[in-house]
Amino acid sequence: MPPVASPSILVLPSPFFSDSDTIRLLESPDCDTDWVLRQVVSGAYDKPFVIDDGATRTLHFSLSLIQSSMSLKDPFRLELDYTQAMMSFLLFLHRPKNILMLGLGGGSLAKFCYRHVGSARISVVEIDPRVIAFRDEFELPRDDARLLVIEGDGADEVIRSGQAEDKPDVIMMDAFDRHGLSGSVSSTHFYQTVYDALAGRGVMVANLAGEKNDRIEHLAMIADVFDDRVLSIMLPDGNDIVLAFRAPGFDPRWREIANQAKALRARTGLDFPKFAERLERSRRLRYL
Description:
The chain has 9 helices and 15 strands.
């Protein structure tokens, strides 16, 4: 199969898995493809890339971790457990008007919110233009009145959004690069800016991944800033999904939430009753 190029993306036979798989790279058609593929296999390749097996398309910063995954049959479905769990904020905030996402990845969360949270305007901030370059490969809708992808630093955009008249109801943080959580979102100061930027009853949703000690450190910073108004879902794959609530009077009514969970499951297909059960359990056990 000869190399095929889109305006900026080179499609090659994948160097692993089956012969029908392809790999998509941000390289020119006249590059040394053998050298590039060797870099990918060795782990030395320093750009994001996409692997397509005919059924699923995945975004990688390295071979060891899948950053985002899309079903080619149903591009708007959430494939990864952690992305599904991040939508649990809908149990507490049913009709958000303004969602700010830090980190684009393959656009899974943006697409899901675009389809299922019709009340919301969605702004997605991504610092790496090379990630944004793959948006068409993951069938992210074009920017319009409800969706805007911004190239920039998420921490800066949080500050800007906090100064706007229409503050975000939800800030979703999934800001990773090939080294883990971005440095600009790894401090108590950052979480304080998130708290300040949220609307009065706003919710922060954070995906914490990586070493256990790092996750515990971030969770402690979040709990400190949000005065312990924190719930979490710990996933078997090592991701912790953390919800933090700005409203001082936060007091979840779990019976009402259980009913809301059933309605959300019927509407979206996600297992919201399971999310509600795990979040209530984390509240009882103090989430740590």
